[in-house]
Specification:
Radius of gyration: 21 Å
Order of helices and strands: HHHHHHHHHHHHHHHHHH
Largest sheet: none
Shape: globular
Number of strands: 0
Structural class: mainly alpha
Length: 441
C-alpha cells in the first residue's frame, strides 16, 4: 500500500460533526426534501424517512467513519485494506468507483453553486429583483461557458479552504458556515411565518396523508432521500473518518450528524415551501425551485432583496462545505497514489473539476451529467462501500473499531442490521435508482 499522507486530524468532536454535517447538507436537503414531503404524504412521509435516517445514521454513517479511521485513508486505500484482509487484490480498483462518483458530483455541483453565487450577487446589486427569474436563470445556464467567473469563484474558494488543511481549513470553515447556515435559515423561516397564505405551505408539509404509507413508492423515495441526504456514498464520509481522533465515539458522532442533517432538511422545508404557497406558486422540485420560483417569491416579498441575499448566501455555505468534502476525497487520493504534496494535490483536484465543468455549463448537459453520476455511479459506489465494510472487512473488525473511544456497548442487533438489513437496502437503492426514472436520491 502506498504511503498515507499526513493531513492531520480534526481537533474537536464538534468540528468533526459540523464538517460531516456540512458534507451531508446540500441541494438535496434544500430543493428536494421539502417537495418530497408534500408529494408523498406530508407528515406521513416523515415516518419512513426518520426510520431510514436512524438506520443509515447508526449503521451506514458509523461504518464509513470507522472504516476511514481504521485505515487512515480514503476509499481507494480503505477498499484495498479490506480486500487484502481477505488475501485478495483489486480493492484499489473498486475504491476508484465511489471516488469517481465524488469527483463527478463535484464537477456538476461546482456549476450549480456558481449559479448560487451569481444569484446572491444579483440580490446584492438588485439585478435579481428587476429581472424575470426565467431570464435571469437562462442568462447563467442556457449557453456554453455562460457562467465561467462564478464557477471559477466557487472552485477557488473550495481550493483555498482545502489548502488550509483539515484543522485549519475544513474544520475552521465548517465551524463558521454551518452555524451561519442554520441561523440564516431560521431568520428566513421566521419571516416566512408571517406571510399571508403561508399556512397552506405548512399544511402541505405537515398534514399527514396516511394512505401514502400504503404506496411502496413512498417508502422507496424516503429510503433514497435518507440514504443520499446522509451522504453514505462509500467515499466522502470515509475520508472524514480517516481524520477522526481515536478518542472520539464514532457512533455518537454519527447520530449527531444524522440529527443535524435532518434538522437542516426540515428547516429548509419551513423556510421555502410556505413562502412558495404564500404567493400561489408551484413547489416544483429541482433547480427551478431554487433559481426561478424562489426569486419570484423574493421579488414580491417586502424586503425581499435582503432575504434573497441571505437565502443564497446560506445555500452557498451548504454548497461549499459539501464541495470541500468531495474534493478532499479526490485530493487525498492524489496525495497517497501519486505522492504529491497536499497543496499541489488540492490544486490539481480543483483544476480537474473546473476544466471538466467548463464543458457542461450548459444546463441540459449538466443535468445529463448529474443524472449519470447520481443514478448510476454513486449508488454503485455506495453499495460497494457497504459490502466492503460489513462483508469483506467483516462485522467483528468494524465493531472493534467502533468501540475505540466508546464505553457503552453496541446494541446486540448491530451486526445483523449492518450485514443483512443495511447492505440489502443499499442494494435495493441501486436497483431502484436504475429502474425509477430520475433515480431516488
Amino acid at each position: 500500500m502506498n504511503q498515507k499522507p499526513n493531513n492531520g486530524t480534526f481537533t474537536s468532536k464538534i468540528g468533526f460533526v459540523l464538517a460531516a454535517v456540512g458534507s451531508a447538507v446540500g441541494m438535496g436537503n434544500i430543493w428536494m426534501f421539502p417537495y418530497r414531503i408534500g408529494q408523498y404524504g406530508g407528515a406521513a412521509f416523515l415516518i419512513p424517512y426518520l426510520l431510514f435516517v436512524a438506520l443509515f445514521g447508526y449503521v451506514g454513517l458509523s461504518g464509513e467513519f470507522a472504516f476511514g479511521r481504521l485505515t487512515g485513508t480514503g476509499p481507494i486505500g480503505s477498499y484495498e485494506y479490506a480486500m487484502k484482509s481477505r488475501g485478495k487484490r483489486g480493492g484499489s480498483v473498486l475504491g476508484a468507483i465511489p471516488l469517481f462518483g465524488s469527483l463527478g458530483i463535484a464537477i456538476g455541483y461546482a456549476i450549480i453553486v456558481g449559479w448560487v453565487v451569481r444569484s446572491a450577487a444579483g440580490a446584492l446589486t438588485g439585478s435579481l429583483m428587476d429581472t424575470e427569474p426565467e431570464l435571469f436563470f437562462s442568462q447563467m445556464s442556457d449557453h456554453h461557458l455562460s457562467s465561467v467567473p462564478w464557477h471559477l469563484i466557487v472552485v477557488l474558494i473550495t481550493v483555498f479552504v482545502l489548502i488550509g488543511g483539515v484543522a485549519g481549513g475544513i474544520e475552521k470553515i465548517n465551524k463558521v458556515m454551518m452555524p451561519a447556515f442554520f441561523i440564516l435559515f431560521v431568520i428566513i423561516a421566521v419571516r416566512v411565518l408571517f406571510l399571508p397564505g403561508a399556512m397552506e405551505g405548512y399544511k402541505y408539509l405537515l398534514v399527514p396523508h396516511w394512505a401514502a404509507l400504503l404506496n411502496p413508492k413512498t417508502w422507496i423515495m424516503a429510503m433514497g432521500q435518507a440514504f443520499f441526504s446522509l451522504s453514505v456514498t462509500g467515499s466522502g464520509m470515509i475520508i472524514y473518518g480517516s481524520y477522526l481522533s481515536k478518542k472520539e465515539d464514532v457512533v455518537h458522532s454519527s447520530v449527531m450528524t444524522a440529527v443535524l442533517d435532518t434538522c437542516a432538511a426540515m428547516l429548509a422545508g419551513f423556510a421555502i415551501i410556505p413562502a412558495v404557497f404564500a404567493f400561489g406558486l408551484d413547489p416544483q422540485a429541482g433547480p427551478k425551485l431554487l433559481f426561478i420560483t424562489l426569486p419570484r417569491v423574493f421579488q414580491q416579498m417586502p424586503a425581499g432583496r435582503v432575504f434573497a441575499f441571505l437565502f443564497f448566501i446560506s445555500v452557498l455555505f451548504a454548497g461549499i462545505t459539501s464541495l470541500a468534502n468531495m474534493l478532499e476525497a479526490v485530493s487525498e487520493a492524489a496525495q497517497s497514489r501519486l505522492r504529491l504534496n497536499r497543496k499541489l494535490a488540492v490544486v490539481l483536484a480543483g483544476a480537474a473539476t473546473l476544466a471538466a465543468g467548463l464543458f457542461i455549463e450548459y444546463e441540459p448537459l449538466m443535468g445529463q451529467w448529474m443524472d449519470i453520476i447520481t443514478i448510476y455511479v454513486v449508488p454503485i459506489g455506495a453499495v460497494l462501500g457497504a459490502i466492503m465494510i460489513y462483508w469483506v472487512l467483516g462485522v467483528p473488525a468494524i465493531k472493534k473499531e467502533l468501540m475505540v473511544g466508546r464505553t457503552k456497548p453496541l446494541g446486540r442487533g448491530f451486526g445483523f442490521l449492518a450485514k443483512y438489513v443495511y447492505v440489502l437496502l443499499a442494494g435495493i437503492v441501486v436497483i431502484c435508482s436504475f429502474l425509477i426514472p430520475g433515480g431516488i436520491g
